[in-house]
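User: what does the whole thing look like in 3D?
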Amino acid sequence: MILDLPRFVSAERVYWNELQARLDRLRLEPGWRMTVAEIERLHYLYERCSADLVRLDTFATEPHLRAYVESLVSRAYAEIHETRAPAGKIRWGASIAAFPRAFRRHLGAFRLAVGLTLAGCAFGWFAVRTDPDAKAVLMPFEGLMQSPGKRVAQEEGMQTDPLHGHKASFSAQLMTHNIQVTVMTMAAGITWGVGTIILLFYNGVILGAVAADYVGAGDGQFLAGWLLPHGAIEIPAILLGGQAGFVLAGALIGWGVRSTRAERLRAVAHDLLAIALGAACLLVWAGIVEAFISQYHQPVLPYALKIAFGILEMAALAIFLSRVGRA
Amino acid sequence: MTAARASALRIKTPEGVVFSLRLASPVLRALAWGVDALVLAAAATAIKQGARLFAMLGSDLAGALTVILYFAASMAYAMIFEWYWRGQTLGKRLLGLRVVDAQGLRLRPAQVVLRNLLRAIDFLPGAYLVGVTACLASRKCQRLGDLAANTVVVREAQLVEPDVEQIAPVKYNSLAAFPHLAARLRSRVRPEAVRVAVTALAMRDGYEPRARMELFGELAGYFRALVAFPEAAVEGLTDEQYVRSAVRAIYGK
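Assistant: Here's the predicted 3D structure for the full assembly of 580 residues, as structure tokens:
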């Protein structure tokens, strides 16, 4: 078919402009709900532009014009052929329940994250107990370098509040840092899970080494009182990040699944989002607790109280993840 | 192994229409990211200034708010803009780029969040080295975040019509007197050749005389080979005039 391009453009431009205006409105007003007549009109314009695109295929002298009509058709196609439900108003109840549901759907990935962290803990414990000099390599943090006994004596004998005047800033820094670590643990799943494995194992090594150091020095109670109030939430949150990383890796690898990689990734996208956001919320809480409770020791806050608080938090989290959102 | 790079993503609709989305190059994406980085830097400055207002609540609270607001801005900037502007941040909008679903469908919130969370990996070890490498190695120019979220970044097309009167001004087009031959020329000519001819005409005054003669000589030879116009129509036309008349005939002028 041979077209007279100027006549064709002048005849069709009105429809292209109308389609573009409707698509622009959809872009600028995500909440716009079309009436049946408007949907029918959009569909008509889409079909008309699609036909124009086919006609332009037979007259290829103007690639820019073709690209423009293609752009319109592709945008209209995305609006018309989308079969997934539109994202409406946020329903908080359903959103909160989505997190534990996603967690339960991928329990195997969580168990793997726990297993790797425990393996790291065992390694860290063994390394520090057999070679105390390994501490400097495994825990490159200034605060952990001094001997546990000295630190306990220092913390318990403190007369003034070392965090006075910057508790809130400290809490904010803890929150943002821990969220970054968790996001990284999740995102590392894109390396077919290798990055997630390394991060979880390394976290476990640090935990195990710290535990070996303090328990070996007879300061296990101090350690539990220091770590449990925030760690009861922070450590599971990082494990959740690891779980999300393994879910992502599983979708990429797709063992024993016949669907395409794109389909597998699409299937787990919402669960990844729910777990990542849930873990981030937990870390906000952990950051507050770490700055306002964990840093205060006996006699200001009795260890028994801190340990009980940590156990309570852990129980509440376990109940939330195992019960909420069940039919 | 580097996959063969595609310049466009081709999608076939259920109606049988095939359309393609032009994929954005890593260079364009880097420029868009540069604009977004500037926006974030401006936001950081604004947050710092804003924190001075919070200082009346106490320096500790002001410090905490600064840390949280900056973190939230850096994490949520791209997510919010890409969701509300359907795949565009300020940088992408300026550069005419858009994030779309790799199947051509509408972008979902989970996709937007996922591709942006994975920036943490794409950014490693600095300046998006992993992301750029992934883009260069990927057939659809996808960074790892795009791969996980099943998205691609495409270039948006605008309605651009060449100003034929400006680039090829002639009072009388002798080729237009033979509409059936002009139509045959339109149907046979390759789009790339028309694009070259239009560009050559637009820039004709900038060429060296010799280069100008050679270029229009080659173009005229190409157009002449496609359709033979009667001698009366082409008599006395230089190569450049012939190309000009051919372009006008192609655009129906």
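In plain terms: Chain A has two domains: 5-80, 92-323. Chain A has a mean pLDDT of 86.
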